[in-house]
Amino acid sequence: MLTIPSTIDRRFKLSGEEFLSEYVNKSKPVIISGVIQNWDAFTKWSLPYFQSIAPGLKIYAKHFHKGKIEIENFTFQEYADILEKYEQGRNQNQPPYCHDLPLFSLIPALVKDVHPFALDYLPEWYTYQWWRYCQFFIGASNSLTPLHFDCLLTNNLFFQIVGSKQFTLFLREDSKYCYRYDWRWFKVDPEHPDLKQHPLYKNATPIKVMVNPGDILYMPPGTLHHVRSFDTSISFNIDWHTQHSVLQGLAAGLKGMPAKNVYYNFLLVLGLIFKVPPQLVFRFYKSYLNYVS
Q1: Contact yes or no for 118/234 (Cβ under 8 A)
Q2: pTM over 0.85
Q3: Separation of alpha carbons 246 and 152, rounded Å
Q4: Are 190 and 148 contacting, i.e. CB atoms less than 8 angstroms apart?
Q5: What's the pLDDT tens digit per position in 179-211?
Q6: Is the distance from CB of 151 to CB of 203 less than 8 angstroms?
Q7: 82-129 tens-digit pLDDT
């Protein structure tokens, strides 16, 4: 019988070889510290900084409301003003969450602030212009992402730069207890579970972890996660496949994965299995970075 842990490892300066053998190959989540603390991003990145270098940049932010995602469009100046008013108590309404924004592609100058990047954690195929695969998360305190898993069943490296977040994780084996809908979303609220409405949830094992500035959180494919920001927060992640996980992702097309997700996994099969160069694959894959699912 599979035993699901109630905590995950915290490791300091984990090497790429150890990361692969002890966590990726075993589908185990881990928090890694001591790898990215010297990045310039920790002294430079803030809402005023982004606002100063790209005030007119057009971005989008999301409201998660009753199982639906609503999109609003802003300039960076407008969005920063909304967050500032909220944090100062001048606006009581929870601002929308700037979620899954490909900011490195929109502001390439930011890439130099995250050097040296942990390229030894990624398959070699991703190392060519790795930053193109990253998505940012910028939001106010109390910003929330409901329980879900990543839509391509990728590995996920999550880099916390500003503020702290609480992740509630469930290994993919627990998904049957969390009442899935729309392929990757779940009805259970781990902060306030309703056992009358969702009685199977009593069998699930939530793993609550704090992710602080300088932490890297690794989540294996299919890991369910619910995320709550405690502060104004700036984070980014990179979703990536191994040869094994991309084939599993492609096979998920037989288990209900939407056709568009299967298409993106097929593109990654071309790269990771058939060695099609990333610059050719990315031409078709880049629309994934603005894909709302």
Answers
A1: no
A2: yes
A3: 8
A4: no
A5: 999 999 999 999 999 999 999 999 999 999 999
A6: no
A7: 999 999 999 888 999 999 999 999 999 999 999 999 999 999 999 999
